């Protein structure tokens, strides 16, 4: 019985090209994610850099476009604030300047609207707790989503008042 290692060694460039194309099928990826995948698969650094440069040159890898799409999908979809999105982009290997440009596309009014929707949804599940506990839980939830304390307290206070409850 033969194993794949019995045959001749594959050309590292062909292997790397196949890995890159497989990774880019279905969803965009950052240059850093692809470089990490190539390194894990044992592709030599010089081959990886050359192919990543080429893929970037022809537009198959575009970190700026990736960051804009990531922000556009995660901000309204998950209700994440700019700080949380910045952390996610940093983990994906997006340069801080590129991330900042993508995050600048978030309208502060949209961010506040997302926070309000999150609070309204969560508030329905907090009908049996006192107002102090509800405030603590709601502000904590918004903090985990990346909202700053001033916006979190302001939104929670307003939403509690609309629900005929009081913030402490």
TrEMBL record:
Residues 110-155 form the RecX third three-helical domain. Signal peptide: none annotated. Residues 16-54 form the RecX first three-helical domain. Keywords: Cytoplasm. GO terms for cellular component: cytoplasm. Modulates RecA activity. This is Regulatory protein RecX. It comes from Nocardioides szechwanensis.
